[in-house]
Amino acid sequence: MNSTPTYRTVDGPARSAAPAAPTDRIAPTARIALVGDRSEAVRAHARIPALLQALRLREGLDLDAYWIPTEDAAQGVYGFDAVWVLPGSPYRSEAGVLSAIRAAREGGIPFLGTCGGFQHALLEFARNVCGLDRAAHAENDPATAEADAVVVPLACSLVGHEGTVRVTPGSRAARLLGADRTEARYHCSYGPNPHHLDLLRAHGLTFTGADDSGDIRIAELAGHPFFLATLFQPELDGDGTRAHPLIAGFAAAAVEHARGRRRADS
Q: Is 36 buried (19+), middle (13-18) or exposed (0-12) by CB count in 10 A?
């Protein structure tokens, strides 16, 4: 007999993540799956609860977020209105992370991937859309051949780096930012393998942000309600009291998904 998974909310006890029965509330509650191996050593993990609370207070968004350990993510993202794959790789379960990304991509569930989430979004797309069965992440499989590595060590580590990312006019990122650039903070040593970028593009992944050297920093999926990934970490922007526009856009998409789910259930 199947049972609904129980996960811990960002600011409360563990409870069921199953959708609540439809009500006549104007603003439905959006359930967000935070996929990652929660750790006090990962600065982004400590930032996220405050950012979600700021979105509740400033934007009036009704958000209910749950931490999903990567080894549990393979069970799927049933009942969630959005999936955010967080920094903190290497993950305990690569398979769990890829399963969550695929479910969001194929199910039209709003998706945000930052840092490791960006890297694994490219890996999932390469394997399941581009047909690269042996596609690998060099951090997870250091012995992999370079020809099979979709994510490779950066020539220069970006740990602690800050820089400017220029975005493509008309892209989702540009619309959310309301500008053609954003300041970015990083904490990573891996990025996309340039040799696979054209193949990813040919199958529909769009790269809409690059740094001053032309290196890819943002990926989007056209035709999806919200599918955006950044190698940089927008959750580290500012002092942690106001969400970056990309995160605010993701949260708004989650609420819209919840609204659609409620209509379908009523």
A: buried
DSSP per-residue string spanning 44-75: HHHHHHHHHHHHHHHH---EEEEEE-HHHHTT
Which is nearest to 130 in space by CA: 173, 172, 193, 87?
193
Mean pLDDT of 217-235: 97
Instruction: Judge contact between 110 and 61, C-beta under 8 A.
Output: no
Q: SS3 for 33? A: strand
Token couple for 113? 């991937």
Considering only 21-35, 46-60, 103-117, which range has the smallest mean pLDDT?
A: 21-35
Instruction: Give pTM, 2 decimals.
Output: 0.90
Between CA 91 and CA 69 the distance in angstroms is: 9
At residue 196, the 3 state secondary structure works out as helix
The answer, yes or no, to whether residue 221 has pLDDT greater than 60, is yes
* List of residues 6+ apart from 16 with CB closer than 8 A: 4, 5, 6
More confident residue, 18 or 72: 72
Please give the Cα distance from 29 to 26 (Å, whole number).
10
| Euclidean distance between CA atoms 135 and 124, whole angstroms | 9
Q: Residue 160 and residue 51: Cα distance in Å, rounded?
A: 21
